[in-house]
Amino acid sequence: MLPRVDLLLLLPLLSAAVVAGHNPIKLVFVLAGQSNMAGRGGVSDGHWDHVVPPACRPSPSIHRLNASLMWQMAHEPLHADIDFKKTCGVGPGMPFAHSVVAASTEAVPLGLVPCAVGGTSIREWARGTSLYKNLVHRARVAAASAGGRVAAMLWYQGESDTVSEKDAEAYGHRMETLISHLRADLRDPNLLVIQNY
After folding, report:
1. Alpha carbon distance 14, 1 (integer Å)
2. In the prediction, which pLDDT does 186 show?
3. How many Å apart are CA 20 and CA 16, to the nearest integer?
4. 8: exposed, middle or buried (Cβ count in 10 Å: 0-12, 13-18, 19+)
5. d(C-alpha 3, C-alpha 153), whole Å
6. Any idea which GO molecular function terms this record carries (predicted)?
7. What is the dotted CATH code of the domain comprising 12-163+172-196?
8. 49 Cβ neighbours under 8 A, 6+ residues apart
9. pLDDT value, residue 197
10. Is residue 161 scored above 70 in pLDDT?
């Protein structure tokens, strides 16, 4: 279950989004991490039950950047064409997006950028890796269509780093490094990162 995020942190972004540009996507949120972010809700024995809870249902205000870098109305499973080696189900992306839309006083179309891949460790997300390069590329494409800015990255990862004590102890430093590199490579020193693990 996704912890409560104080949506007051996002209000300045919501206000700016209403007046910025004319593109349909006003706010961009990157979804990254491992299986909990990619979504395994409703998956059993490699099959998704196709049950979509109300908090995960499509909305005309919520879009996703698909694997072909095209915007489409967001629908579960959000990561099906990204984490394609595994069966995806529902995850935390849609409930988060619905919460942001509900917190806005005006219609604010937002875009989700699925990047999560199940079973990955934080080392696999380090600068220079294929996962990192893909995340940065997808975020840049999405931001360019939304006026040049990613509102936040939602990060849900960490289970793979609990297998060894060494990896668990190094996690904090690796996460700080990842955030620093993303802020530099996305040219946003204040990029908001919402972390769960």
Report:
1. 24
2. 96
3. 6
4. exposed
5. 15
6. hydrolase activity
7. 3.40.50.1110
8. 42, 43, 89
9. 63
10. yes
